[in-house]
Design brief:
With 385 residues, this protein is of the alpha+beta class. The chain folds into three domains: 10-131, Butyryl-Coa Dehydrogenase, subunit A, domain 1, CATH 1.10.540.10; 133-240, Butyryl-CoA Dehydrogenase, subunit A, domain 2 (Beta Barrel), CATH 2.40.110; 244-384, Butyryl-CoA Dehydrogenase, subunit A, domain 3, CATH 1.20.140.10. Helix content is 50%, strand content 15%. The chain has a four-stranded mixed beta sheet. A four-stranded antiparallel beta sheet has the order 2-3-7-6, with no helix packed on it. The chain is globular and about 80 Å long. The N and C termini lie far apart (45 Å). The mean pLDDT is 96. The chain binds flavin-adenine dinucleotide (FAD). Residues 237-385 form the Acyl-CoA dehydrogenase/oxidase C-terminal domain. One of its GO terms (molecular function) is oxidoreductase activity.
């Protein structure tokens, strides 16, 4: 395939929703990704956990996690996180995956942790020497986190965890996990507390799960897993608030990643439609193919604007829950539709196992499920009207 066009639409970045710092960041990360294009992806059959470790080291070395440290400097705002995720997702799914999980777990600590927890965990997460994970979901609690059943029982001056978590990104390689547990201070969501648990804690066992697109992903079991009193993240009984805060921010960044995937799928489709001949002309000259390409462009533009609105609003301290839900809903559904339409334009060539487009087709599927399935987002939007 020919070289890809750039990740970002310059005209969109010129809008007053962005600052010069975002434009400079977009240029820097685009150049970094382009220099490594083709080397970030795991080789066929590679161990996803090992590749995630290698990518984390490289992201840390290159400074892309530096904003998560004790002295974060520039680029901590949500628009900057979105710029990084869009570029990484455009170039390599797994690089975006590693960046996003590291960012998610560190921001839970930054936003809800004590100074001591900051000192203990943030430097390693920012340098890429330690991996983070968020362990919220359970076999019986996914969309409805108020049903979390893993128990944290007071024992001496600490707690003992018993139960299981599932679908945990980086769960098999994490050095520190943000765990949502039931302390029973109230019913449903009021009985939950967040904790920081070391990946090597006694009684914690991780079992890798194979995913549709390769990634480090695991089920966790906690059997009499003992944690100290300093492990509590935020106030007791406020775990649900911590989870919703983290998920709301994450939704905006998932929308940005979806944009990266969608722009790449659209670039593949355009290139193929211009090169492939049928009926003595190019596919791109057929009116129905033109219609598919135009639909891609409009969906990407709408997703870009919705994502920028949500991130701008979050950065300016506004109520952005509805905007975050709308951005994630539209951008992830659009990315799925665009990847599917790109495969249609490729015909059989789009279905060759492990080809760039077939991999992308698998990579975008999960976006419509994690950090709030589309139906939950529709509920949030409707309830906020
Ligand atoms: C690749 C990937 C990575 C993940 N990483 C993590 C992680 O790091 N940490 C973590 O804690 N979890 C993680 N998850 C889990 C993810 O958060 C859950 O899959 C998600 O919350 C949905 O929960 P569920 O899968 O149990 O689906 P369920 O809650 O069983 O829902 C199934 C379906 O029911 C429908 N539905 C749900 N609620 C409603 C509603 N209110 N109205 C109408 N329809 C509804 C939706 O179509 C939904 O897809 C990950 C998932 C994936 C796919």
């Amino acid at each position: 395939m020919a070289p890809l066009p750039t990740t970002f639409e310059p005209e969109l970045l010129e809008l007053p929703l962005f600052d010069d710092a975002h434009r400079a960041l977009a240029r820097r990360i685009e150049r970094w990704c382009a220099d490594r294009h083709g080397t970030l992806a795991p080789p066929t059959g590679a161990d996803p956990a090992a590749h995630c470790r290698a990518l984390r080291t490289e992201l840390g070395h290159s400074g892309w996690l530096g904003h998560l440290g004790l002295e974060p400097g520039e680029g901590t705002d949500l628009r900057s996180v979105c710029v990084r995720r869009q570029a990484l997702a455009f170039h390599e799914d797994l690089a975006d995956f590693v960046y996003s999980i590291q960012e998610l777990s560190a921001s839970a600590i930054i936003r809800h942790g004590s100074e001591e927890q900051h000192r203990r965990h943030l430097p390693g997460l920012a340098e890429g020497t330690r991996a983070g994970a968020l362990a919220f979901s359970e076999p019986g609690a996914g969309s409805d986190l108020s049903a979390v059943a893993l128990t944290a029982t007071e024992d001496g001056d600490g707690f003992v965890l018993n139960g299981s978590k599932t679908w945990i990104a980086q769960g098999d390689i994490a050095d520190v996990l943000v765990v949502l547990a039931r302390t029973g201070d109230g019913p449903g969501p009021l009985g939950l507390t967040a904790f920081l648990v070391d990946g090597d804690a006694g009684g914690l066992k991780a079992t890798p799960i194979r995913a549709i697109a390769p990634r480090s992903w695991a089920e966790l079991t906690f059997t009499d897993c003992r944690i100290g009193p300093d492990a509590m993240l935020g106030d007791r009984g406020h775990g649900y608030v911590v989870a919703l805060d983290v998920l709301e921010r994450a939704r905006v960044t998932v929308a940005a990643a979806a944009l990266g995937f969608a722009r790449r799928a659209c670039a593949y489709a355009l290139e193929r439609a211009r090169a492939r001949r049928a009926y003595s002309r190019r596919l791109a000259d057929l009116q129905l193919v033109k219609s598919a390409l135009a639909a891609m462009d409009v969906k990407i533009a709408a997703a870009s604007l919705l994502t920028a609105r949500a991130a701008w609003s979050a950065d300016h301290g506004g109520e952005y829950g509805r905007y975050a839900a709308a951005a994630k809903l539209h951008a992830t559904e659009a990315a799925g539709e665009i990847a599917d339409a790109a495969v249609q334009i490729f015909g059989a060539a789009g279905l060759v196992a492990d080809s760039p487009l077939e991999r992308l087709y698998r990579q975008v599927r999960s976006l419509r499920i994690y950090e709030g399935p589309s139906e939950v987002l529709e509920m949030i939007i409707a309830d906020a009207l």
